[in-house]
Amino acid sequence: MKNVASITLFLLCFTVCAQNNNTEDSNKFLDDFRGTASITHNGVSLVPSFSLGDPALLFDLKFRKDKLSFEPDMRFSLDAKPWTMLFWFRYKAIEKNKFSLRIGAHPAVNFRTVSVIRNGSTEELLESRRYLGGEIVPKYQITNKIGVGMYYLYGRGFDAGVKQTNFLVLNASFNQIQISEQLVINFTPQVYYLTSDKLTGYYTSAFLTLAKKNCPFSLTGVVNKGLRTQILPDDDFTWSVLLNYSFSSSKRSIKKLTKV
Question: Which residues constitute the signal peptide according to the record (predicted)?
Answer without folding.
Answer: 1-18
